[in-house]
Design goal:
The chain contains 16 helices and no strands. By secondary structure, the chain is mainly α. The longest helix has about 55 residues. The two termini are about 20 Å apart.
Length: about 450
């Protein structure tokens, strides 16, 4: 069994456990604050997501790539290179924190439309420098193939967050609905700090001693991070605008504000977490395939790249079709079992046919990044988000929720079509029978074993 398969399996187990905890906790929060409260919380998290994107500034991908390159050929010191990554990202983390803190009132008034979001945004601003450094740690451990171990830290962060939030809520049952978002983000911020402490401790234990070798230059970090950061930031900005427009678009169609928040909460707080739950497997593969493909590209092993890409696409398609069928058939069971409500059943069933496209897009995006095509991925994500913003503006006031479901389908299909087209131009992915006399499985295993021996020699 290859190291990629082993690490993917281990990481998948941890990610699935984290998803189970996350979905269960979302169900608990929904029962406490209601679907409209969940809708407000999702809007706060949309703004926070934009701030996190700015603070991380593409460091996860950049750290993965430069640490991987540092490990090949013995030209650079990984610890010194990682310190450069920290210097890069801490600057953006502090800037993002200050912006979110001082502009929280303006954002709440002008964009979210609810003054109760001011305090939660200020609390979340404290977590941004820690979130930025944690993204760098994620990239480092991915490159070092220690993601399964690092996932335990992420799991601890998740559990810590839940324990803190429930402890605060139980300690004061008289909390009003206005206090709930602040309590939730207090737990999130504390957990982010705990994750930082654990990651720093773990790295100091497992990392090799610093050598006399130099670090990769800062311009190389910028070269990889800037396209990913600028594209991700711009897309996140468009996503934030889109999501803030959604409840207002529902209102313009004739719904009142509370009903609009409830519809938004049902889709993004209940239905999407359910259909994306099995994607934990593919998220693991997507993260771990980046350094693997980066090494294959470094050694110019085109045949191994082609066979790896084809195999991943085949497995993803097979897996996603099964998940789609299960989500559609078991929608009532899933909604009642997890959330104790039938409100999201229709949304789960409507979105279930989109699962194969969403899952394939996740894996395709990861493979493009591993093949140094992150700029193309960035452009496609921006195009997707621009289309969404335009369609939300024009369709939601007329077609309400039906219009938004249509937008989800159009955006996902366009994004995947563009990404898949680029992947097809980058490598050979036609699903044809191998011409070799050896069986395809044997041939791929032999190629992969040879590749591993080369890496180990280096």
């Amino acid at each position: 069994m290859s190291s990629l398969a082993k690490n993917t399996a281990l990481m998948t187990v941890v990610n699935l456990l984290m998803r189970i905890i996350s979905v269960s906790f979302n169900a608990y929060l929904t029962s406490v604050i209601g679907s409209s409260g969940m809708g407000l919380f999702q809007l706060i998290m949309t703004v926070y997501g934009l701030a996190v994107t700015f603070s991380c500034a593409g460091i996860r991908l950049s750290a993965t790539r430069v640490i991987t390159e540092s490990s090949i050929g013995g030209k650079y010191d990984s610890n010194k290179t990682f310190n450069k990554c920290i210097e890069y990202v801490i600057f953006f983390g502090i800037i993002a924190s200050l912006i979110l803190y001082f502009f929280s009132g303006f954002i709440s008034d002008k964009f979210i439309g609810n003054i109760n979001s001011v305090l939660p945004l200020k609390i979340l601003s404290v977590s941004l420098p820690f979130a930025a450094v944690n993204a760098a740690f994620s990239g480092y451990f991915t490159a070092k193939k220690q993601i399964p171990q690092y996932s335990v830290i992420l799991l601890t962060e998740q559990i810590s967050k839940i324990i803190i939030i429930i402890a605060i809520l139980k300690s004061n049952p008289s909390f009003s609905s206005q206090n709930y978002p602040s309590v939730i983000v207090m737990g999130m911020t504390t957990a982010e700090i705990i994750s930082f402490i654990l990651a720093k401790t773990f790295k100091s234990i497992v990392s090799a001693k610093t050598t006399s070798l130099p670090s990769i230059k800062m311009k190389e970090i910028f070269r990889i991070a800037f396209p990913d950061a600028s594209g991700t930031l711009f897309r996140s900005l468009l996503l934030t605008v889109e999501h803030l427009m959604i409840p207002k678009g529902f209102e313009k169609s004739g719904e009142n504000y509370k009903v609009s928040l409830s519809a938004y909460g049902n889709i993004h707080g209940i239905a999407l977490p359910v259909i994306l739950f099995p994607c934990a497997v593919l998220n693991s593969l997507s993260a771990l395939i980046i350094p693997e493909l980066a090494k294959m590209k470094e050694y110019n092993n085109k045949e191994l790249i082609n066979s790896t890409v084809r195999r991943n696409l085949k497995l993803t398609l097979f897996y996603s079709v099964i998940c789609s069928a299960v989500c559609f058939a078991a929608a009532p069971l899933l909604s009642n079992l997890i959330y104790k409500t039938n409100e999201a059943v229709q949304y789960i069933r409507i979105l279930a046919p989109l699962v194969p496209v969403m899952y394939l897009d996740t894996v395709t995006d990861g493979m493009l990044k591993g093949l140094d095509k992150q700029f193309s991925s960035m452009i496609y994500n921006i195009i997707d988000s621009l289309i969404c913003v335009i369609l939300v503006y024009f369709l939601l006031p007329v077609y309400s929720v039906k219009g938004y479901i249509f937008i989800l389908y159009i955006s996902e299909i366009i994004n995947f079509a563009l990404s898949f087209s680029k992947l097809a131009d980058t490598c050979e992915i036609r699903f044809r029978k191998e011409s070799s006399k050896e069986t395809p499985m044997f041939s791929e295993r032999k190629q992969y074993s040879a590749f591993r021996r080369v890496c180990e020699y280096q």
